Amino acid sequence: MKRILFPLILLLAGSFVFGQRREDIIRLQSDVLQLQNQIRVLQQTMDEKDGMILSLLEQLNDQSAEGRLVLQDLQRALGGSRSQSEDLGRLMESVREELRTMSAKLDETNNRVASLHRRMEENQLQIQTLRSVPGGPGEVEPDRVYIASFNDYLMGNYALAVDGFQDFLANYPDSEFADNAAYYLGDSYLQQGRHELAVQAFDQVINLYPRGGKTPVAYYKKATVLAEMQRMDEAIETLRRLKRLFPQSLEAGLADEELRRLGVQ
Questions:
Q1: Residue 219: how many CB atoms within 10 A of its CB?
Q2: Which option is the CATH number for 16-132: 1.10.287, 3.30.70, 3.40.720, 3.40.50?
Q3: Alpha-carbon span 11 to 26, nearest angstrom
Q4: Domain 144-261 = CATH 1.25.40.10
Q5: What is the mean pLDDT of each run of 10 residues along the chain (265 residues)?
Q6: What angle do CA 82, 88, 91 make, to 5 degrees?
Q7: Reduced to 3 states, what is the DSSP secondary structure of residue 44?
Q8: How far apart are CA 263 and CA 235, in angstroms?
Q9: Which residues does 228 contact at the CB level (< 8 Å), separation at least 6?
């Protein structure tokens, strides 16, 4: 009995570990994409605030110069009225306080951006750790190949991503990440301006993984690339097929908008 239970326990433990690895990979992908979006938003916010502060400083300089002239005129006209000087002093102090508040907010934004960068670096280290975990003899770990290629895609290294996704699909066509790999291969081609190859990759998603999670967006991306290539009949047919096969998907709504843009009822 013990001889039967021991291998069974090992098998269950191995399945649990693999499941945990897969969840870690998916969570890291989501974290990296979310952090990149947050960094872009915060960077845009920081740039806007930099412009606001620069504009405010220029206005303060102008107001300060005008204020000194007005104060001198008031002092001469009113015989150096103390109340007028105090009012202008309070106004200047109010403006300075507003500037200090904006500077504090800018510092907070900078700190948040720095914190996000640190989190990005930590996630990259975790990804590298997952990639470097050695497997046992003969053990196949397609997730390590996929996550390396996906990381290149996220970093904008599209040539490396193309090579990685091609190798992944050649070696692990039945992997649970295969439809994702085929889709991101197509998008990597698209980012390189290689439209014909992008269409072929999106077709691979559609034909080999007809019910995969990336299939609706592959239809939509294929249609938009075909439209950009002025292959309108194919683009329209692809959009209609998307609506017919995945009527409840987000991409079906996008297909409606694209068909209207193309003047198709």
A1: 26
A2: 1.10.287
A3: 23
A4: yes
A5: 45 48 59 63 61 63 62 56 61 69 67 61 53 43 84 92 93 90 96 96 94 93 95 94 94 92 83
A6: 145
A7: helix
A8: 12
A9: 195
